[in-house]
Structure formats: structure tokens, C-alpha cells
Amino acid sequence: MAFELPKLPYNYNALEPHIDAKTMEIHHSKHHQAYVTNLNNAVAGTDAEKLSVEDICKSISKYPAAVRNNGGGHYNHSLFWTLMKPNGGGAPTGDIAAAINTAFGSFDEFKTKFAAAGTTRFGSGWAWLTASGGKLSISSTPNQDNPIMDIAETKGAPILALDVWEHAYYLHYQNRRPDYITAFWNVINWDEVNKLLKQAK
Ligand code: MN3
User: Fold this and answer.
1) Distance 35 CA to ligand 1 centre (A)
2) Average confidence (pLDDT) over 28-36
3) Cβ-count burial of 20 within 10 angstroms (0-12 exposed, 13-18 middle, 19+ buried)?
4) If you measure from the C-alpha of residue 177 to the centroid of ligand 1, how many angstroms do you get, rounded to a whole number?
5) Strands (E), the chain
6) Can you tell me the distance from the alpha carbon of 29 to that of 25, in angstroms, rounded to the nearest whole number?
7) In terms of pTM, does the model score above 0.85?
8) What spacing in Å lies between the alpha carbon of 97 and ligand 1's midpoint?
9) 19 CA to middle of ligand 1, Å?
10) How large is the C-alpha radius of gyration of the chain?
11) How far is the CA of 30 from the centre of ligand 1 (A)?
12) What does the buried/exposed string (b/e) look like for 86-119 if buried means 16 or more CB atoms within 10 Å of the residue's CB?
């Protein structure tokens, strides 16, 4: 098998009460697993079988929709799990705190803009904070597209990502996507965000 479901770095109930255990279990073991299975099926017998999911995303315009949707799904979720942790959240620390203040004026202003990117994404998609050429940007993508794809409107290295598909929140928050986004601020793993910022430089 070319691609495998990564283990979660915490238990399914670790992000409660902000993100409930049942949502995490279904999201990881069913949804993410399906992207991995379908990606493996889509690349079977092709050269893409030997590539990393990052390299596939970077030249995604060469691939059929099944690779774009499931390769993006695998990349995005693998990243997303690492960006959360139990007892996370709070104000950012380290380099990302300074970078956010420089780019957006304040952490509160950043939160407003990032939340707006997630709230206003129609249908299914993701909100992103990316770094490119030393500059931070907020954007959103439809479906399982992401900022490392060659077709992305706003390209860059992902620093923070938020899944705003209904499957990410509907069991607990039903149609209240803004409440789920508010809860996300309590589980962010700022250490990982700082690591990604450093790697992007
Ligand atoms: Mn998802």
C-alpha cells in the first residue's frame, strides 16, 4: 500500500469538550481512511504510486479528479491532526505570535479574519494560514484543495489549517459552523504552528 492512515497523536476524546470523541473517531477512522483507500486505488499502477502526497499535490493539475480529491484529503487531514492537541489554544507564543501581529495587527484581528475565511467558505472546504516569501496570508479552498496545489489561488506553505466540512462538526454543532470555529481556538497546537513557520522560512 502506497499511502497509510497516520495514527492520531492523541486519543479520540482528547479534544473534548471542544471537539467530541465521536466526531474525531468518525473523522479519522472513516473519512480520512476513505481518502487514503481511494487515493491508493486512484494511483495504483501509475507513477504517482511512488511519489509523496506532497509531490502529488504540488503538480495536481496533471492528475484526475480522484487523485486531487483524495490526495488533497489525505494531505489536509494528516496536517490537521497535528495542528490540534489537548489543552492547546490560548494566545500564540514564539515566532508565530510576532508574525501574526506584523501581518494582521493583533491576534484578535487575525482570529476575526481566519474565522471569516472558514465561515464564508460556501459548502465544503478549508481555511488556511500560509507563509510565502516571509509573508503570512489567510485564504480558503473548496473541497480538499490546499495551498500547496499548483491550482491554488493563494499558494504558500500551510502554517494553520481548519477543516470546515460539515463532517468535522455536525454531530456536536449541527449547523453552527461559527461555534465550531470558536471552539477550534481552544485546541490549536501552537508549538506545531511555530515548527511549520520555521520550516517555511
Ligand atoms: Mn475532514
Assistant:
1) 10
2) 98
3) middle
4) 13
5) 125-132, 135-142, 157-163
6) 6
7) yes
8) 27
9) 13
10) 16
11) 10
12) bebbeebeeebeebbeebbeebeebbeebbebbe
Gap from CA of 113 to ligand 1 centroid (Å) = 21
C-alpha 12 to ligand 1 mean position (Å): 14
Q: Which cell numbers hold the place of 58?
A: 504540488
pLDDT of residue 201: 87
- The backbone torsions φ and ψ at residue 130, rounded to the nearest 5 degrees and listed phi first, read -125, 160
Instruction: State percent of the chain over pLDDT 90.
Output: 98
Cell of 90: 490560548
DSSP helix/strand/coil, 108: helix
pLDDT at 1: 59
Tell me the CA–centroid distance for residue 62 and ligand 1, in Å.
24
For the segment 113-163, what is each residue's pLDDT rounded down to a tens digit?
A: 999 999 999 999 999 999 999 899 999 999 999 999 999 999 999 999 999
Q: How far is the CA of 102 from the centre of ligand 1 (A)?
A: 30
Rounded Cα distance, 164 and 19, in Å: 13
**How many whole angstroms from 79 Cα to the centroid of ligand 1?**
11
Q: Output the CA 167–ligand 1 centroid distance in Å.
A: 6
